[in-house]
Amino acid sequence: MDILSLIGAILGLVALVGGSILKGAGLSGLWSPAAFIIVIVGTIAAILLQTPMHTFRRALGIVRWVFFPPPQDHAALIARMLEWSTISRKQGLLALEPVLDQLPDPFLRKGLQMVVDGVEPETMRQMLEIEAQAQHHRDTAAAKVFEGMGIYSPTMGIIGAVLGLMAVMKNLTDPSKLGHGIAAAFTATIYGIGAANLMFLPMCSKLKGVIHRQQVEREMLIEGLIAIAEGENPRNLESRLNGFLH
Question: How far is 183 from 189, CA to CA, in rounded Å?
Fold first, then answer.
């Protein structure tokens, strides 16, 4: 689990609820079914209008990375590729074939299969780079779904506040309802701005960071696999791959 994400989510909730209590609004001041429907449902409606189905599905698939990012151990991966390099230099590229069934990562398995099949290094680089860029584009587009929600939700909050004030204007003849009505109107603004800055935009930034690290890992894999295919000295390979750790 990403501990910083968990701490951030808890502190965001504490800041919102604690601030409401300390300011005298209380917990009841944060609850408004009408504001929830306008802001949250409205934001979801807007993002569904904007996003293709496959991108939205991918966004739902990677949202867990905010708290449970894919495990990445570059040092262990470098050690494994150095082992493959040593085996291939001593026994030939075909000696790596038994390793294929042990690889859970489809990208790595595909790349090593190319090495075993004797695909030309330049051809291998082009094919793997195309796949890596395509995956990076798909994941980045999915992360931007939450960025879009962070853009739309404050606007939906303003719409909710305006609708609330319209309701207040209809009750100007009853002063006892004005204070409650105005407070309820501004609750929608809190929902919109709070959701954007405490949830949607931070989630997008976190996901983009995970996606960037995955892209760096794929670039490292491409360099390592091509070096193995070319029969590069393991010591030189280690020096090249260690550059990705910094």
Answer: 10
- Model pTM? 0.86
Please write the tens of the pLDDT for every residue from 112-132.
999 999 889 999 999 999 999
Largest Cα span, the chain? 92
Greatest mean pLDDT among 62-76, 90-104, 127-141, 221-235 lies in 127-141
Q: Does the pLDDT value for residue 173 go beyond 80?
A: no
Sign for the pseudo-dihedral over CA of 227, 231, 236, 242: positive
Task: Establish how many alpha carbons lie within 13 A of residue 188's alpha carbon, considering only the half-sphere containing its beta carbon.
Answer: 25
C-alpha pair distances (Å), 87 with each of 33, 56, 101, 116, 228: 64, 43, 17, 12, 10
User: At residue 48, does pLDDT exceed 80?
Assistant: yes
- Scanning the structure block, which residue is given the tokens 């094919």? 127
pLDDT for 179 equals 66
180 Cβ contact list (under 8 Å, min separation 6): none
User: What is the sign, positive or negative, of the torsion defined by CA atoms of 224, 225, 228, 229?
Assistant: negative
